[in-house]
Amino acid sequence: MKTNIAGERALVTGAGSGIGRAVAVRLASLGCTVTLAARTLEKLEETAALCNAAAREAGHGTDAIAHTCDLMSEQSILSLVRAVADEGGLDILVNNAGIVQAGPLEGIATEQFDAVMATNARAPFILMRETLPLLRASRAAEIVNVCSVVAHAGYPNQSAYVASKHALYGMSKSFAAEVYDEGVRVHVISPGGVLTDMVAIARPDLTGTPMIVPDDMADAVEYLLCHRTDAVCDEIRLHRVTKAPF
Description:
The chain has 246 residues and is of the alpha/beta class. It is built from seven helices and seven strands, in the order βαβαβαβαβαβααβ. Strands 3-2-1-4-5-6-7 form a seven-stranded parallel β-sheet, sandwiched between helices. Strand 4, helix 4 (110-136) and strand 5 (142-146) form a beta-alpha-beta unit. The protein starts with 8 loop residues before the first strand and ends in an 8-residue tail after the last strand.
């Protein structure tokens, strides 16, 4: 049974490009009012225009809302959450934003490690904590944390990124157990190489090979949100077609 999420309110981080943009546009096409968060207003405005066009094409009258946010700043995150509350509340949180530092561990500066952890793990932690009162008021609250295959394996030359995604994965499992009885569901999507600017940094060896595309990620998010039944999917893992199964 497919769930209709039209009329729900969603917040997507990292919505200026890549996976975040694809997810935001998909949610708009499904009738959600989408709040877009990223650092660059110009990119957010581009995403908002795509969201609004997708909503109109699908027969919805919703308009996306853009908010610049520095996810390394707790105050900036708190301001974002206050804006979301003032704009009508929240049903769906998609923690998608992420950064990567590639190279041997011995060459990663402490401030680089801190930036990766702050963006990829600390920001979702703050967002889940601060939006929980809003999600509790929803009839069907959902959190989707965009994790990674590296949350399940230690890839060389990605130590900071691997550490951050292990942290996000473990935190997602614990938080899911904490809020499950309240009707708040926490899901994880763990993809392999996705065709974005970030994968070119982390895995330059994949250039020119078949990869997961952002719309594949949007498909996964849509499945999690639109199949809220008595069967629960905690995690979706995706891998490249050229990578061996399992």
